[in-house]
Amino acid sequence: MTAGQIETYVRDKAEKIFEDYGMEAEVTEAVITGSRCRGLEKAGSDLDIMLVYRGEEPKDVVAAFLNDEKLIIGGVRVDISPLQKDKDEPLENYLRKEREELAEAEKKARERKPGSIDERPSVREKLKRGRIAMETAKRQSMIKQARLKTERAV
After folding, report:
1. 108 CB contacts (<8 Å, ≥6 apart)?
2. Whole-prediction pTM value?
3. What is the 3-state secondary structure (H, E, C) of 44-69?
4. pLDDT of 51-65, one tens digit each?
5. Which one, of 44, 42, 31, 51, lies nearest residue 118 by Cα?
6. What CATH class has 3-119?
7. Distance in angstroms (rounded) separating the CA atoms of residues 81 and 49
8. Which residue ranges make up each domain of the chain?
9. CA 100 to chain centre
10. What Rg do the C-alpha atoms of the chain give, in angstroms?
11. DSSP label of 29
12. Cα–Cα distance, 63 to 54 (Å, whole number)
């Protein structure tokens, strides 16, 4: 799944939970955040999602319902942090603070000796590699089909 597909999936899942439990809430945004989107995850790291919603349901109640589902995507547990639109700080402020915190963590990680941190590729990097592999396979298939067509014509 791409980052956009994951965000859409979580958004749809949250809307379904709101509907199933008769909650007066509507999702306005879902954004992947945290260490996985920066490639700083470690073994066992979860996938953090900031979910902005509009409604009167208290944020702690919304968080409890959303995380009670124990959502797993690609073998990774999803942690949903809700933000109440018009009552909490804007999403941009949270994302800016998070970028600053992650940049500091990244700087500290670089200062450690090599091999001391988990150097696995990030989710974004894995998705990018998968997309490139699919495009390469598609091109190779098209070349093979063109060669077969040419050989048959001769």
Report:
1. none
2. 0.60
3. CCCEEEEEEEEECCCHHHHHHHHHHC
4. 999 998 898 999 999
5. 42
6. alpha beta
7. 6
8. 3-119, 121-154
9. 19
10. 21
11. E
12. 14
Residue 92 tokens, joined: 């941009």
CA-to-CA distance for 57 and 77, rounded, in angstroms?
24
Question: Under DSSP, is residue 23 helix (H, G, I), strand (E, B) or coil?
Answer: coil
CA 64 to chain centre: 20
102-140 tens-digit pLDDT: 778 778 777 765 554 455 666 777 777 777 777 777 878
d(CA 30, CA 80): 9
Decide: 56 and 23 in contact? Cβ < 8 Å.
no
**In 59-131, beta strands by DSSP E:** 72-73, 76-84
Of the candidates 73, 101, 54, the residue with the CA atom closest to the CA atom of residue 7: 73
118-120-122 Cα angle (round to 5) = 115
Phi-psi group of 149: left, alpha or beta (phi > 0 → left; psi -120 to 50 → alpha; rest → beta): alpha
DSSP 102-118: HHHHHHHHHHSPTTSS-
